[in-house]
Amino acid sequence: SPRGWRATTVRISPEVDGRTTLHVGWMTAGGQYAALEMTDTADARWLDSVTLDGQPTGTPYVVNGRSWSRLENPQGTERSLVLAKTLDGRATTHVVTGSADWAELESLAAALVVRAPAPAPSAG
């Protein structure tokens, strides 16, 4: 995470439908909240939940060859950068979100290394 940020929460949650989610939250150096939310699906309801009903706004943020969509909730209190990809045939969604400003969210997105998920272990 960027310099001066303090981790506040880490949670991995297997869902009843088989989807797995990862949540990591931080207090930024500027005293705002930022989180990384990840799931191994492309689920619009999950995306609405973690972005607080974020709607597309502005131009994408491009870093490390990846284009992150910008979303902002109707109240203007939650900003989100969203990277939805299919890696090795598997859908993944990464969201950097929070009350932090765009520059702080961009610094978190830039720090991420997005890789293909590990293959499922084979039985036997």
Number of discrete helical segments: 2
Query: Class by helix and strand content?
Result: mainly beta
Helix and strand sequence: EEEHEEEEEH
Shape: globular
Average of per-residue pLDDT values: 87
The strand count comes to 8
Strand composition percent: 35-45%
Termini Cα gap: 38 Å
Overall helicity: 10-25%
Q: What is the CA-atom radius of gyration, in angstroms?
A: 15 Å
Biggest sheet architecture: 8 strands, antiparallel
Low-pLDDT runs: none
Descriptive account of the structure:
- By secondary structure, this protein is mainly β.
- The protein contains 2 helices and 8 strands, in the order βββαβββββα.
- Strands 1, 2, 3, 4, 5, 6, 7 and 8 form an 8-stranded antiparallel sheet that branches.
- Strand 5 and strand 6 (66-72) form a beta hairpin.
- The chain is globular.
- The mean pLDDT is 87.
SSE blueprint:
Layout: E1 6-14, E2 20-27, E3 33-39, H1 44-50, E4 55-56, E5 61-63, E6 66-72, E7 79-87, E8 90-98, H2 102-111
Antiparallel strand pairs: 1-2, 2-3, 3-8, 4-6, 5-6, 6-7, 7-8
Task: For the structure shown, list the relevant keywords.
8 strands; 124 residues; eight-stranded antiparallel sheet; 44% strand; mainly beta; 2 helices
In short:
The chain is 14% helix and 44% strand.
